[in-house]
Amino acid sequence: MFIRKLLTNNSYRVPLKHASLGHQITRKNLFSSLGNKNKVFVATPIFYVNAAPHIGHVYSSVLADILTRFYALQENSVKLSTGTDEHGLKVRHSSFLDNEISKIPTSEPNTYEYISNETGSKVEWTQEENYKFRLSKFNDILFQKIKSDEILISPESRKNEILSWLKNGIQDISVSRPKSRLSWGIPVPNDDTQTIYVWIDALTNYLTVDGFYDPSYTSPNFFPPTYHIVGKDILKFHAVYWPALLLGADLPLPRRIVAHGHWTIDDSKMSKSKGNVADPIAAINEFGVDAFRYFLARDGDIGFDNNYSEKNIQHRYNTELVAHLGNFISRCLSSKLGFNSALFANVVDQISKNGVQNQDLDLHNNLLELPSIIEGLYKDANFSKVLVSLNQTLSLANKHFSNNEPWNLTKNSDPSNPSDRLTTVGFYSLETIRIVSILLSPIIPTKSSQILDTLNTPNDQRSWKFSKFGSGWAKFLDSSSPLKQNISHIFPRKL
């Protein structure tokens, strides 16, 4: 259905003249309900199955999963689309390069080899007859939509790459292969000698997961994607070819494309021949899923290529999750302090009535502003900055804890008084842990859940709205439900 509508009036067969491929299919007002509130569609590429999963696959998937969990935390309805791409020809044939090759002389006189400008790999010259999509027809409109951020490409450097490419003018692309070469696949409508090129039917995956293949499909559910999460090597397909195909079929465009960099290993390019390909499964088995996710989010900067190292995974885990977050929780839950969490809701009331004490002001203001800051960073897929900001808050809370010396306050405290200084210090410390754990949960969901279990936070009070300062203590904590004190199972140190 999509293919037939797309190719009508937007394709021609070469070397033959333009061939119309059937009647145009229209669905009146099909997408008139675009902009459904509280619906978010996050999509990864559909990965090739020519080898075992590698760090690039995992990185795309983790970024998409973090976004999905973030929007679900905000009580949106979220669809996450992922999968694999399986087809009939080897992957080395998934490309038509045309003018994107260089002619390089060899050591033999008057002989040359052809090299892909993008990958540096050798290419073979073949000649065949197929249909071409009028990509050039959409050059100017794509340029304007990307420049104006109607299609938002991040980071900015990737956006500029695409704009530069469009500024030079794009050529039409082949969208079919002779059936004699590729019998497995979707046939071209009204031409049984041709099969749709794999990249075209692969991209339609983002439509079919929304039910577009069903004749009864009359309105969108989640389409178009809110986020496409892709590696920088396939940005052109998602930022130019895919939007042009949608324009050709009168369908709405993706809203945002996040193109991340690649990963090196120990500062060297990964290579199977060198035997230095990262094994994500081994790292997960060693450090756990959450620690691995934390590392990818913390050390992964979408604007650059990033370095993968198991030493770095261990370093982030031990210095930030264990020594920073875990140690702070352990200090706060010391039985020697015995913070009376049953009074924390009353502490919130006292602060509301009497104002914030000077020694609490910096931490108080930070906790008030933190959710909105972190929300913006999540929406920008800037997960590294999410973790930097949350670690800064934990540093501030640790300093607040140490400056107030609660171990000395216990000498003259009144556990029944909500205005007691020890209780106030305990509230700010554990409120920091509660808020940070909720905001961390899209990145380290299992560990965050365990921390909130320790604080006796009910499952129905773990959504984003409960990251608001003072919102989490009114209903459930009393003297009969003391805070758990053994957290060694949450963050065991890795040696």
From TrEMBL:
Annotated keywords: Aminoacyl-tRNA synthetase, ATP-binding, Ligase, Nucleotide-binding, Protein biosynthesis
One biological process term in Gene Ontology: methionyl-tRNA aminoacylation
Example GO molecular function: ATP binding
InterPro entries, sorted: Met-tRNA_synth_2, Methionyl/Leucyl_tRNA_Synth, Rossmann-like_a/b/a_fold, tRNAsynth_Ia_anticodon-bd
Domain of life: Eukaryota
Keyword Transferase belongs to the record: no
Gene3D superfamilies cross-referenced by the UniProt entry: 2.170.220.10, HUPs, Isoleucyl-tRNA Synthetase, Domain 1
Location of the Methionyl/Leucyl tRNA synthetase domain: 41-93, 116-333
Similarity annotation: Belongs to the class-I aminoacyl-tRNA synthetase family.
Name of this chain's protein: Methionyl/Leucyl tRNA synthetase domain-containing protein
Organism (species): Smittium megazygosporum
Highest classification ranks of the organism: Eukaryota, Fungi, Fungi incertae sedis, Zoopagomycota, Kickxellomycotina
